């Protein structure tokens, strides 16, 4: 198994025109998972997990220095 190209599942686009919000790679967030600020929150599940983890509300964590082929990030712009 591996990741898929962006927009590979056009029927899954969100009402905000966002593609691939879950299931390709775990996405890093800017949030700390713990009060000691050692681990960051990951969202969305990955190709390497079961289908129950492939949703944008699923939450996990890892240390920012760790590398996993199932982790990635999404570039986003905060528009006020």
Protein described:
- The protein is mainly beta and 80 residues long.
- Helices cover 0% and strands 21% of the residues.
- The protein contains no helices and four strands.
- The chain has strands spanning 26-32, 40-43, 59-62, 71-72.
- Strands 3-2-1-4 form a four-stranded mixed sheet, with no helix packed on it.
- The radius of gyration is 13 Å and the shape is globular.
- It starts with 25 loop residues before the first strand and ends in an 8-residue tail after the last strand.
Write the layout of secondary structure elements.
Layout: E1 26-32, E2 40-43, E3 59-62, E4 71-72
Parallel strand pairs: 1-4
Antiparallel strand pairs: 1-2, 2-3
**Alpha-beta classification:** mainly beta
> Quick one: biggest sheet?
4 strands, mixed
Low-confidence stretches: none
Q: How many helical stretches?
A: 0
Summarize it.
The protein has 80 residues and is an all-beta fold.
Which descriptors apply to this entry?
4 strands; four-stranded mixed sheet
């Amino acid at each position: 198994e591996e990741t898929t190209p962006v927009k590979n599942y056009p029927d899954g686009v969100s009402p905000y025109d966002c593609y691939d919000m879950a299931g390709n790679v775990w996405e890093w967030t800017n949030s700390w998972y713990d009060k000691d600020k050692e681990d960051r929150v990951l969202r969305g599940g990955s190709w390497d997990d079961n289908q129950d983890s492939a949703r944008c509300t699923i939450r996990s964590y890892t240390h920012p220095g760790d590398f996993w082929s199932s982790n990635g990030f999404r570039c986003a712009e905060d528009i006020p």
